[in-house]
Amino acid sequence: MSENPTTDDFPVNDLPETGTPAAPAKPKATHALALAPVGSPASSVDGFVREFLRELNYGQGVALSTSSVNDQYLALARTVRHYLMARWLETLRRQAETQAKGVAYLSAEYLLGRQLGNALLATGLTEIVEEGLGKCGVDLAALRAQEVEPGLGNGGLGRLAACFIDSLATMSVPCIGYGIRYEYGIFRQTFVEGRQVEQADSWLALGAPWEFPHPEAAQIVTFGGHTEKYTDTDGVERSRWVAGWKVKAIPYNYMVPGYQNGRVNTLRLWRAQATDAFDLKIFNSGDYEEAVRAQTFAENISKVLYPEDSTPQGKELRLQQQYFFVSASIHDFVNSVLPKDFDLHKLPDRIIFQLNDTHPVIGVPELMRVLIDEKKMDWDEAWAITQQCFAYTCHTLLPEALEVWSVDLLGRLLPRHLEIIYRINEEFLERVSERFDGDQLRVSRMSIIAEHPERAVRMAYLATVAGAKVNGVAELHSQLLRDKVLPDFDEFFPGKFTNVTNGVTPRRFVRLANPALSELITDAIGVGWLTDLERLRELEPYAEDEEFRDRFREVKAHNKRRLNRVLVERDGFTVDDSHLLDVMVKRLHEYKRQTLKVLHIVTEYERIISGEVKPADITPRTFIFGAKAAPGYKIAKDIIHLINGVGAVVNNDKRVEGRLKVLFPPNYNVTLAEKVIPAADLSEQISLAGKEASGTGNMKFALNGALTIGTDDGANIEIRELVGDDNFFLFGLLEPEVEALYAKGYVPSSFYESDPSLKRAIDLIAQGAFSDGDRDVFAPVVGNLLYEDRFMALADYRAYIDAQDKVGAAYADTDAWTRSAILNVARSGFFSSDRSMRHYIDRIWHTPPAF
Ligand SMILES: *Cc1c(COP(=O)(O)O)cnc(C)c1O
């Protein structure tokens, strides 16, 4: 290896500055090198520099000396891509050869986070790149910061999809992810006078170096029109769909690299484009404006992600999006991915389409239509295949979150699919009626078609009838799904319901987000834990090791200082590393109960200013919020305003200075999560029991050594069982108690009347203490709490405050706290999404690793 890069092919001005001779390049990590198939660029510092400069010069068309940070970022991204390319092509070649069974993950959302760091980690190139860029006078950290994350999801559901495809690639399981390449992802949140303001997320504006568009592989997706009956040449009566309009779906491929294992799976996101023919016809009619309008209309389909989380809106464009990506994906799989001569009767041996919530459920009638109308199968054959090719993951328990599409709209947009759904329903209800002796009440309860308030297709029912398996996302959620949401179906389809508890990828949420902790772990237990996370158990004895505890604490402090730097630069906020960092980051939703957190903060504040406690007697805390509200969700936006109002007062009141601080950095996303979570001491998971399906934020925190204060809900329950009661602050009503209280008649104001400290907190808000004396601004929030409080924040208030008092006291015992934090890390290995994937494979997919 030469000391300086060979730059013969490049302009002299791009010779890296080498005033002092560069240190000899370190040999790179051997495992990654050994796994790089022939054809990858040389894995040496010099080899890297050559590739990087080539991309800068010939790809970006700039000299190093005149290049912008963005030029350098794009050149680096493309260079790193080269290292993955041979593995990607090899993965595709082997898959084509073996035709091993794989997963097609259908998801309307992928909340991917930044790609560069993950690609560097997967290739094992980080050190080489850091050194090589150093020789060019370029700082890797600055280039990483240049990347705008693809925010193609709202929150947990989209992030889950991203974790799952990472795990499948790392476990060498064949998987193709299908979704939508939204031109605008989740909005960028800013605050103006404490209120949320949404801005368009132009994530593509500075270039998209990770995607590979393939316009030549476009699929056509049709809509509207009508259906006809006809007799085919064999005398068989058939239906056909005479569509009214169509759009082109252009695939954009993304690499999904496994962690240093030589495998690269594919994520295929579709972009909508007007078809030439469609344009041309109108254009030829001489109506230029109409031609342009048609183009805009078509391209609107993949223009923007709907920012609703847990509350579907039933908008026509949303149904267009769903059908657009599912139809393109199924056609792509059947007509392009499968070999030409593939016998579709064997489809279930080759693929399982996993439905991430109900958003892709229109794929069920679509596959039926393809098999019957296009491939000329008969109904029974097609239905037998379809039932084996789909499985459905339910993500909610809230009735308002169960998606329905009005028959009117669906019939207008997808008339053939409505026919197919009706027939599926007819045959299904016939079986129900037969089995239950004509029990008409049950038949109407189980109908895929709801009659009230309007005729509508219940997508969850359709998915349940068609799916080989239906799973919930945490033990409690799966149980409630069977007992409360779909009990008739559980009875009718024994064995269909199962659970797979969610997980998170430790590559992104431990290794990339928390390098300091990762190093400490590896020092203690060696390598290998990153792909076998249960090995974190080996850390347990270290909880008793004083030196290890000191180092663990230093890691936490280091992460708080890192967060401080990020927030100073981003928002001008400072974080004191001696404070207990109390963090609630997740979408703003009433069921998640950010208001309960606010009531705690106001209570602490009130205790100090009223003189009830001396400032010196409370544990200094910094509260951090991160939360976007759906733009049309009024009360959620009011709550954001309230949090900012409380922050503005608390942070400027000398009486609580150095004791209480409230920070709400705007635009919570994956990038911010990666900085906030590793710094946290306390993880707020305070949903009303029975409302949060699983949560995955809770898992990220536990794995990064935060203790949880949480209700008996979702995956909190499994976290507590694993980490132990002593290392978890449990509070609040249990799910059956919640049900009992609803049944009895919940009167929130009675809690207000009977708990003086709750009354004082609510009165402070109502009297305008956090709104410059204005009593109107937060009246909707106060009114909602006192007279509605659907999620029982007031009922859980006392238990929450008492649990928080215990937290404050516990944090003062540094050693005991650190011990608990270490045990949280050591006992949370179960929450790796690798384990989730193992369970999906065993219980649902039956797709063994391929190579
Ligand atoms: C993990 C994650 C979520 C989900 O958080 P919950 O607490 O489970 O709701 C949402 N948004 C982002 C950016 C995440 O990383």
TrEMBL record:
Disordered, as annotated region: 1-27
Documented EC number(s): 2.4.1.1
UniProt signal peptide: none
Catalytic activity annotation: [(1->4)-alpha-D-glucosyl](n) + phosphate = [(1->4)-alpha-D-glucosyl](n-1) + alpha-D-glucose 1-phosphate
Keyword set includes Lipid biosynthesis: no
InterPro entries: Glycg_phsphrylas, Glyco_trans_35, Pyridoxal_P_attach_site
Keyword terms, alphabetized: Carbohydrate metabolism, Glycosyltransferase, Pyridoxal phosphate, Transferase
Cofactor(s) in the UniProt record: pyridoxal 5'-phosphate
EC class name: transferase
CDD domains per UniProt: GT35_Glycogen_Phosphorylase
Keyword Transferase: yes
Described purpose of this protein according to its UniProt entry: Phosphorylase is an important allosteric enzyme in carbohydrate metabolism. Enzymes from different sources differ in their regulatory mechanisms and in their natural substrates. However, all known phosphorylases share catalytic and structural properties.
Family that this chain belongs to: Belongs to the glycogen phosphorylase family.
Descriptive protein name: Alpha-1,4 glucan phosphorylase
Organism of derivation: Microlunatus aurantiacus
